[in-house]
Design a protein that fits this description.
about 55 residues, about 80% helix, 2 helices
């Protein structure tokens, strides 16, 4: 996982220090994962409500 943080940090935050690149890459990864999880949960709730028989 550290290799992904290093690569993503160098690619997205190239003008920062190495430790700042890794920190910001971790924040970016966790934010994207959290947003995807919330989006999937919301989609599941909407689908459940839409196909719920009355």
């Amino acid at each position: 996982m550290q290799a992904i943080y290093n690569l993503l940090g160098k690619w997205c935050f190239s003008r920062q220090q190495d430790w700042e690149q890794r920190k910001n890459a971790k924040i970016l990864v966790f934010t994207v994962v959290f947003a995807l999880a919330m989006g999937l949960a919301l989609a599941a709730i909407i689908r459940l409500m839409y196909y719920h028989k009355k």
